[in-house]
Amino acid sequence: MVDVTELTRGGTAVRTARFMASRVLALVEHPAERGPLVAERPKAA
Fold first, then answer.
1. What's the half-sphere exposure (Cβ side, CA atoms, 13 Å) at 33?
2. Residue 5: exposed, middle, or buried by beta-carbon count in 10 A (0-12, 13-18, 19+)?
3. What is the pLDDT at residue 16?
4. % of the chain exceeding 70 in pLDDT
5. Are 3 and 25 within 8 A, CB to CB?
């Protein structure tokens, strides 16, 4: 059994799935080295 969890940049689980698999291939994306996205920036008052 393999549990797969998709995470946000902040580490919050978005969705999880469980598979029966004889082999596992993992894709791991490291956080970008740039600043926050436009939607994540605080709004000016």
1. 0
2. exposed
3. 92
4. 64
5. no
